[in-house]
Amino acid sequence: MKRILFISLLAAIAIASIVTVGWFTASRVTFADYRERGVIILMYHKVNPDWKTGGLGLRVPPREFDWQMHFLKENGFHVVSLNEAVDYLEYGKPLPEKPIVITFDDGYRDNYYYAFPILKKYGFRATIFIITGIVGKTNEWDEREGKPTNYMLTWQQIDEMAKYGIEFGAHTVNHPRLTKVPLTVAEKEIVDSKKMLEEHFKRPIKYFCYPYGLYNDQIIKIVKKAGFRAATTTKLGINTKGVDLYQLKRVRVTGHMSRRQFVEQLEKYLRERA
């Protein structure tokens, strides 16, 4: 009986191995068919193993983030900067095959402690959208709604990441719902966040991200007037040449997503046009 159980166990392991290898092989072959489809922009928030910092809707455990970055590396994806992506979308400037952009919203401190080492491990860059009024503090906008406290990046950490090649964009000063506040307040939040980052970095800040993904035509006009080159949304999809640069789509990655779902989501958006 023990011999039969042992043989059955070996058979099950062998089948599982074949299925797993087959899935990754199929993924590699399938992805190889896509050229000039467009640019996927991944959207992350927290990369943190601690459940006390919040649910998996905004939090991806580091081991899963590492697996995702490894998958991109091993399957021929080329991580490009948001600036390179916009150069392609606006002017048609060439990009490598299967270009992908990595972005983080809010600027959580765990981006430095957990995501940054993994990005360096694979030689990847990313863009982090900073809430300029709470650098070095906590997520006050969430705390007011009774959500868990998270610490935000410090300027020292931001400078270290920028020196490596991480790009930083603006995400307002205090993270308001821009469509729910007076336009004068919205404009100040947008303009001041840009100014604060430019004063710190001593160079233009080109990219903006709408808090909560909320915006309208009036907000877009303010973003344009402020001098931003483009802005990211929470709308799902892939970006192709001719897309509205102030309504860039992204692919949201959450901790609820299985590894298979991560792969399938990439494949889904590579199959469709924006």
Automatic annotation (TrEMBL):
Compartment annotation: Secreted
GO cellular component assignments: extracellular region
A Pfam match: Polysacc_deac_1
UniProt domain NodB homology: residue ranges: 98-274
Main localization, broad class: secreted
Superkingdom classification of source: Bacteria
Keywords on record: Signal
Single GO term (MF): hydrolase activity, acting on carbon-nitrogen (but not peptide) bonds
InterPro entries in UniProt: Glyco_hydro/deAcase_b/a-brl (IPR011330), NODB_dom (IPR002509), Polysacch_Deacetylase (IPR051398)
Transmembrane parts of this sequence: none
GO BP terms: carbohydrate metabolic process
Designated name of the protein: Polysaccharide deacetylase
